[in-house]
What does this fold into?
Amino acid sequence: MNSGIDGAQPDAGAVRLLSLAVNGQRQQRAVAPDITLLDFLREQLGLTGSKRGCDLGECGCCAVLVDGRPMLSCLLPAADLEHSAITTIEGIAAGTALHPLQQAMIDEGAVQCGYCTPAMVINGVHLFASEPRPDAEAIRTCISATSCRCTGYNRIVQAFERTAERFAEEQP
Ligand code: FES
Ligand code: FES
It folds into this structure.
């Protein structure tokens, strides 16, 4: 076990300084060792787009991108993310220009209460970045990572399909 210079044990409960990037902006904040990334984003940075559903890693509503990969922010200790790059739903649009999937979600009526929408989009942005023309199975796998209580999923599937069509048109 590590000990301090003076022989004292380090305080595992001590607040520590966390430095990371969120939506392209460098953040340096004091964080409690047990605060989750979800609470850090919502409570310390005021980024409330990432939703709390279950806090158990089951509903998927809290998904964000960590170094480009979708992760469940309710399960991640913020203190473990030193020097990471986090992207939340607030960082997906380019100014007023929505990501094509965001626009398709609106156009297809895939947003009802909207609680699942940020995570659906976060996962979809990762999907389309890695595979601009995903097949039906890839789309359904991506969508199944997030629980939606409102839509029955069909409109969300349609939004993903419309996005895939748009990327296909732009990159024939
Ligand atoms: S809040 Fe449900 S998986 Fe994170
Ligand atoms: S739109 Fe309400 S949970 Fe999906």
The mean pLDDT is 93. The first strand starts at residue 16 and ends at 22.
